[in-house]
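Annex B. Sample input.
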Amino acid sequence: MWFNICFVLFCIVGGGNSLSKEAFRYNGDTDLNHRLAEEQLEARRCQDCSCGERNEEPRVVGGTETNVNAFPWIARLIYHQSFGCGASLINDRYVVSAAHCVKGFMWYMFRVKFGEHDRCMQKTMPETRYIVKIIAHNFTLTHLTNDIALLKLNKPIEFVHSIRPVCLPPIQSQTFSFAGILATVAGFGAMAETGKWSCTLLEAQLPVLSNDECKDTKYNRTKIKDVMMCAGFPETAHKDACTGDSGGPLVVENSDNIYELIGVVSWGYGCARKGFPGVYTRVTEYMDWIKDNTDDACYCDM
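Annex B, continued. Sample output.
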C-alpha cells in the first residue's frame, strides 16, 4: 500500500506501540504456554545461511516483471482476506514493514505470505505465517515520521531458494546518506496511480536523492526529516512505487553483490507525479531499535 496524504487504502486508527499474542492471558491453557516455549526454543536453532542474495543475474529495470523469486526476501501482508502491504524478511522470525500498514489494526487478522512471484496464480501455495506480535514505532500522521514496524511470525521460516532474508546495512553505514546510488524498489503494487495492482512482482531502479535535493522538490521542506530518504526521478517521474507497495523494500547492491535494506516504502503524493519523488523510511536510523526488538531471532551472515 503506497501511503499518501489521501490514505489510498487504509485509514489510520489509534493503536499502541506493541500488539502481542503473548500479551493476552489464556486461563488454564497450558498447551498454549507449552507451544510458545517450543517456538522460542526452535527460534534459537539457527540455520547456516547467507542474507541478501538475489536469485538471478540479469538486470530487469523500471517497473517491469522480475525473474521468478528474484528477491527472496519479499513478503506480502494480508489483512483478513485483502492484500494490504509489502514487507521484507530480515531473519527467521521477523519481517519489517511500514507502521502505517499495521497500526490500529487487529494483529491476529494478519498473515504473511512468502516465496511468491505471481500472487494471482492459484496452482502454487505460498509459504504462510501468522503474526503473534507487532512492534510499531512511534509513527505520527502529523509528521509522517518513524514509519516502520516489526512483525513476529508464529514460527521460524525455513530458508529455501525462494525464501531468504535481506541483509541489514552494516553499522558503519549509519552515517552514509546513499545519495546518488541506484537503488531497487520491488512490490506487487499498482502500475499507475489509478491502475490495478500487479499479479507479478515488479521492480524499478531509482536514484537515491540527498535530503537537501528532496527538500528542493515540490514537497513542503519541513515534511522531509532526517529519518526519511527520497528516491526517484522528480523531473520526469517515469518510475515510482505506488499503491500496494507500502512497507516493501528499497535495497542497494554492495560491492560484494549482496543486497542491503536501506529503505521502507512509506509515503508520497500520488504515484509518479512530477516533483514528488517517493519517500522512504531510512533504515539506518533504526538499526539499534531493530536489533533490540529481534534478539530472539537468528540472522544470516552477510
